Amino acid sequence: PLSEAELALFDPYSKEESTGPSPTHTGELAAIEVESKRLDQEPWEPGGQEEEEAEDGEPAPAYLGQATELITQALRNEKAGAYAAALQGYQDGVHILLQGVSGDPSPARREGVKKKAAEYLKRAEMLHTHLP
C-alpha cells in the first residue's frame, strides 16, 4: 500500500483525516459512485500501448497484468459499495504501476501508465478522504 508521503507526491494537500463521516462525506461517496460508472465505461485495458510494442515482439511487462487485476477488482468493489476494499485495491494497483513503470523500456507505455496511475491514485485519495 501507498504511504501518506507517496500519496502526497500527487496531491500535496493530502492528509489523513481522523474524524468520522459527515453528511457531506456520504454525499461525496455517492458522487464517487457516479464517477465510477464513467470509469466502468472506459475500463483500463493496458493493451493500448502494448499493441504498438507487440510489433517488435516484446511481451507486455508482468507488472501491467498484476496491476490490472488489482484495479479491476477495486472497480468492482467500489461499484458494490465495498469502499475500504476498493481503496486497498487502488493503492496496491497504483503501487505496482509506479514500481514497474520506472523500468519499462517503452516511452509511450510509460506515459500511458503514469496517466492511469494518477487517475486511480486520485480515486484512492477520494475514497481515503471520505472513509471513516
From TrEMBL:
Signal peptide: none
Entries under Pfam families matching the protein: MIT (PF04212)
CDD domains per record: MIT_SNX15
Compositionally biased tracts (Acidic residues): 48-58
Region (Disordered) location: 1-64
Domain of life: Eukaryota
Domain MIT: 60-132
InterPro entries: Intracell_Sig-Traffick_Protein, MIT_dom, MIT_dom_sf
Protein name per the record: MIT domain-containing protein
Source organism per UniProt: Mus musculus
